[in-house]
Design brief:
By secondary structure, this protein is of the alpha/beta class. It contains nine helices and eleven strands.
Length: 257
Amino acid sequence: MNIKILVATHKEYPMPADPAYFPIHAGAALHAPLPYTGDDTADNISAKNKNFCELTALYWAWKNLDCDFLGLVHYRRHFAGKQQGKTQFDRIITTAELETLLAQVPLIMPKKRNYFIESNYSQYVHAHHAEDLAVTQAVISEKYPEYLPAYNKVMKRTTGYRFNMCIMRKDLLDNYCSWLFDILFEVEKRLDISNYSTYDARVFGFISERLLDVWVEKNHPPMKTLPLLNLESQHWGKKICNFMLRKLSGGKWGKNK
């Protein structure tokens, strides 16, 4: 199997030594060079990185890399394998493990996050801007109406895949990316983000996290889920506090911070 797992990064960082992993400088068109392949050559959207986040790396690989399976992880977030070791890096899933899994299913996703007291919709609008999802829903309704029931179902759930992480057989990824970027580029035309904070301006990366769930819900590809491995502290106390404050304030607290 020719497996390529993009490791999206914006800074120098220790990278897995396993040959399946492909470090890529996301947003290379906007920053000083790093000792990794940049997403700013050939067919690319690297200059959109402030709004599309790691999707600029995914777009580049979709258009320019030849492989059987293509995946996306982050420099500090990976899929966990079964192996144990002295460091977190020792727990990152290996090529050998991936080949076994991908011989069985064409898609690997991270285990879902559960918001418990929030739906995917309410969690988004409390943390970001409701208009983002309103425009996205309108675009789906116009361009891909067959996906609208899946979109509405996903928005009502309290669980969802996050971080745009996946490993997918290339033909499925072609289908997914064609659908995803067609929607996002249309939303980009319609959505005014001129007054968004730097954080909320990452809007198309945030929207795409929800759209991956929608695509999976509609197409039902055979899949397996793996635990998410974080290489850095997650500061869960602070995250939970911020989550509750946004919930109690109706989303007003913390906006544009």
